[in-house]
Specification:
Chain A: Keywords: FAD, Flavoprotein, Oxidoreductase. The complex is a heterodimer of chains A (372) and B (397). Chain A is α+β, with helices and mostly antiparallel strands and 372 residues long. In chain A, the strands form three sheets. In chain A, strands 1-4-5-8 form a four-stranded mixed β-sheet, covered by helices on one side. In chain A, strands 2-3-7-6 form a four-stranded antiparallel β-sheet, with no helix packed on it. The longest helix of chain A has 36 residues. Helix content of chain A is 50%, strand content 17%. In chain A, a hairpin with a 5-residue loop joins β4 and β5. Chain B is α+β, with helices and mostly antiparallel strands and 397 residues long. Chain B folds into three domains: 83 residues, no CATH class; 107 residues, Butyryl-CoA Dehydrogenase, subunit A, domain 2 (Beta Barrel), CATH 2.40.110; 149 residues, Butyryl-CoA Dehydrogenase, subunit A, domain 3 (Up-down Bundle), CATH 1.20.140.10. Helices cover 46% and strands 15% of the residues of chain B. In chain B, the strands form three sheets. A four-stranded mixed β-sheet of chain B has the order 1-4-5-8. A four-stranded antiparallel β-sheet of chain B has the order 2-3-7-6, with no helix packed on it. A two-stranded antiparallel ribbon of chain B has the order 9-10. Chain B is globular. The two termini of chain B are 32 Å apart. Classes of the chains: A alpha+beta (372), B alpha+beta (397). At the A-B interface, α7, α8, α9 and α11 of A face α9, α10 and α14 of B.
């Protein structure tokens, strides 16, 4: 049992925390969000130089072999400043799926440049009809005349517009889950991009008789690999939410100490003190769950998925609580676009909609309750 | 980071488990399992067994006769004791007054009292709260006036847990009514046989005689029974409150109670199915399970910090608040799980030696325990006080 970071991990945390605090102030973040997407941003190139893009991948695919704790450190630091880079959705998740099931030629073509920061990818696993279920999907893929044909629609694909290619999951005739690599200019592919409520790039992808050469199939049985990638993504999202909860709590506490009403700082009112403590309790309990998630990634799939579902469900509810209290304790200011905490609140509420919400994950816990 | 126990720690857990399986008398285990109150003799029998094993004073350093365990081992020990339905060691002597005597007591006090605690010769109780001093403990008004080589003590203490069995009481008294309120307090060790002491039971809403009022009427206490200097009592009290609070979440008890709840809700039937499959009920059990998981990791974080030399400060307030809320929620669900069987109340069975049909015995304590567990968020500094501590010490409000 050990909660301490190694020297390398401490260094990673310090370096990254300093970097994003310096490069992603509220004004800089606004500018980054308004800038047209044209290849890698300066910050992304710095990430590449620091080795952050190699960190989460195993050494046999050219990565640095970072574990769940390393990913947690990075995501938490990104969450603290709401860094508008698709580290998880454009790098970690699609990259991990490639690392787990692509062949060497596919890895050479798509994974190696990803790690070098030369392009980003997207992972299209979600469909509205299946809600948060990654396996009960309608998109179909079948082989005809030595080619694959894909039909269907993938929804709310994160980072879709910035991706050099999208990894698409589809049901095969034998009932297994296939994974394919699809580029935007392929005939029959249409994409409709937008930003999410919390200002992240996303889009929908329609596949209308899309024909792909055989080498674009990553796997004809990607189910376990996808489950592993989703587990990693959920643990990483929990860590990111912890970072955002920390900042939301810090900003709210600072506001309570500075804002005066009835001639006194708000921080002197006991009902507000206790509310602030409740936020802190939610944060600390969620931090424990995020640690549990980060340290569960190498467990057997059943146990891993149970603990990570528990963590995601727990963090989802805490994140919403903290977001709502942050707005409430900022009063009218908390309702404004100008107030920075409002952006954290939006992210913390919408966090629950990424990779399965509390209801979805509570059901997973519930199904395994008797065995636990 | 990793959350796994080392092979040595796992071996220690096995050793504790084996010991409990062999040494815990089955009649005591059964009383604890069914939630029946223990008799004084049950406590003493079990504590003598622990003492013989050298495991009674889990918190003590080796030089005073403790086993020399660290925070991790103590945590494992507590967890296994709860899982085995072992009685909780009555904390007032071994866990509360003893550390104060070790830290602030004279050599004579240490030589006299510590071995007697270790041998279960003395049963200690706590004279802290007063009718007018609950959360505001430093507002206590029991007076001690020096008269030669004795203090004359007058006043009233309350919520004195198991005081009906105690022969010794550690007591906060006001020795200087003119000093600032914390500064005028001293820490006295009082023999309960001294003339002028009356113990009167308080029956709690679950029908139990667990707490008492203690009246002190011109009680003569030798000056050498004061621990530390005159006016240093608040320092002793604060030390006691911050000492070894890593077990404050009651994690072992929460785990055991949740296991019991799940098994009970799997046996109880609702329209031909186990109650545990009723969605509204199951949802609350799932939430409790999640809270337990979070609390366990938080508790381990605090334990690891203590192991690595940190002093658990306000984090123990967090553990206390969330731990008590969780245990109360589990006790609520356990009561609900029984359905109409939660209604009958059998005090002679719960508090005495009367027998009861097995049909009722298994669930007899659920409702009483639900009411009893309300104390968890009140004693040891009410949860609202804990939140004010966090606001002040962690958040700087």
């Amino acid at each position: 049992m050990d909660f301490a970071l190694t020297d390398e991990q401490r260094m990673l945390e310090e370096t990254l925390t300093r970097l994003v605090a310096d490069q992603v102030t509220p004004e800089q973040r606004r500018a980054m969000l308004e800038a047209p997407a044209q290849g890698a941003s300066p910050l992304w190139r710095t990430f590449a130089e620091l080795g952050l893009l190699h960190m989460p991948f195993s050494e046999d695919v050219g990565g640095l072999g970072g574990d769940g704790t390393d990913v947690m450190i990075i995501m938490q630091a990104l969450g603290r400043c709401l860094v508008p880079e698709a580290y998880l959705f454009g790098l970690v998740m699609p990259g991990q799926l490639l690392a787990l099931c692509a062949n060497p030629a596919q890895q050479e073509r798509w994974l190696a440049p990803l790690l070098e920061g030369e392009h980003q990818l997207a992972l299209a696993w979600q469909e509205h009809t299946a809600r948060y279920d990654a396996f009960d999907i309608l998109t179909q893929a079948s082989q005809h005349d030595g080619q694959w044909q894909l039909n269907g629609r993938k929804d709310v694909v994160m980072n879709l517009g910035n991706a050099a290619a999208t990894l698409v999951t589809a049901q095969l005739p034998n009932g297994k889950l296939g994974a394919f690599i699809v580029t935007a200019n392929t005939q029959g592919v249409t994409s409709h991009t937008y930003r999410t409520m919390d200002n992240q790039p996303a889009g929908d992808l329609t596949l209308n008789s899309v024909t792909l050469p055989l080498e674009n199939c990553l796997s004809e049985d990607a189910g376990d690999a996808l489950a592993e990638v989703l587990a990693l993504g959920r643990a990483a999202l929990c860590a990111e939410a912890i970072g955002a909860m920390e900042t939301a709590c810090d900003q709210t506490l600072a506001y309570l100490k500075e804002r005066k009403q009835f001639g006194l700082p708000l921080a002197t009112f006991q009902s507000l003190q206790h509310r602030m403590v409740d936020m802190h309790l939610h944060l600390e309990q969620s931090r424990s769950m995020a640690i549990l998630a980060a340290t569960s990634l190498s467990l057997p799939a059943d146990e891993r998925d149970y603990k990570i579902a528990a963590a995601k469900a727990y963090c989802g509810e805490s994140a919403r609580f903290i977001a709502e209290q942050a707005i409430q304790l900022h009063g009218g200011m908390g309702m404004t676009e100008e107030c920075y905490v409002a952006h954290y609140a939006k992210h913390l509420v919408m966090f629950d909609h990424y990779l399965g919400d509390s209801d979805y994950h509570l059901e997973t816990v519930s199904e395994k309750l008797d065995a636990a | 980071m990793n959350l796994t126990f080392s092979p040595e720690e796992q071996a220690f857990r096995e050793e504790v488990r084996r010991f409990l399986a062999d040494a815990l008398p089955s009649d005591i285990r059964e009383r604890v399992r069914l939630g029946r109150h223990l008799r004084a003799d049950d406590h003493i029998r079990w504590q003598n067994i622990l003492s013989e094993q050298g495991w009674l004073a889990a918190n003590w350093p080796v030089e005073h006769g403790g086993p020399g365990w660290g925070p991790v081992q103590r945590h494992i020990f507590d967890e296994e004791c709860a899982a085995a339905h072992a009685p909780t060691v009555v904390p007032f002597g071994v866990n509360m007054v003893a550390p104060v005597i070790m830290k602030f007591g004279s050599v004579e006090q240490q030589q006299h009292y510590l071995p007697r605690i270790l041998n279960n010769q003395d049963w200690w109780c706590q004279g802290y709260s007063e009718p007018g001093a609950g959360s505001d403990l430093a507002g206590l008004s029991t007076r001690a006036v020096l008269d030669g080589d004795h203090y004359i003590v007058n006043g009233q203490k309350t919520w004195t847990t198991l005081g009906q069995h105690a022969n010794m009481m550690f007591c906060l008294v006001r020795t200087d009514p003119h000093a600032k309120k914390q500064a005028g307090i001293s820490f006295l060790l009082i023999d309960m046989q001294t003339p002028g002491i009356t113990v009167r039971p308080i029956i709690t809403l679950d029908g139990a005689h667990e707490v008492n009022e203690v009246f002190l009427d011109n009680v003569r206490v030798p000056v050498e029974n004061r621990v530390g200097e005159e006016g240093q009592g608040w320092t002793c009290a604060k030390f006691l409150l911050t000492h070894e609070r890593t077990g404050i979440a009651g994690l072992g008890h929460a785990k055991q109670a949740l296991r019991h709840l799940k098994s009970l809700a799997s046996r109880m039937q609702h329209r031909g199915n186990p109650l545990l499959s009723l969605p509204s009920f199951r949802q609350r059990v799932v939430k409790a399970e999640l809270e337990l998981m979070a609390l366990e990791v938080t508790n381990l974080r605090v334990i690891a910090a203590a192991r690595d030399g940190g002093v658990p400060g306000a984090e123990s307030s967090l553990l206390k608040v969330r731990g008590s809320e969780l245990r109360q929620e589990i006790s609520e669900l356990t009561r609900r799980a029984l359905g109409p069987a939660a209604l009958p109340f059998f005090p002679e069975f719960l508090h005495g030696d009367a027998s009861l049909d097995d049909e009722y015995a298994q669930g007899a304590a659920a409702s009483a325990q639900y009411f009893n567990r309300r104390k968890l968020s009140i004693y040891g500094g009410a949860n609202e006080i804990q939140k004010s501590i966090v606001a002040k010490t962690i958040l700087g409000m």
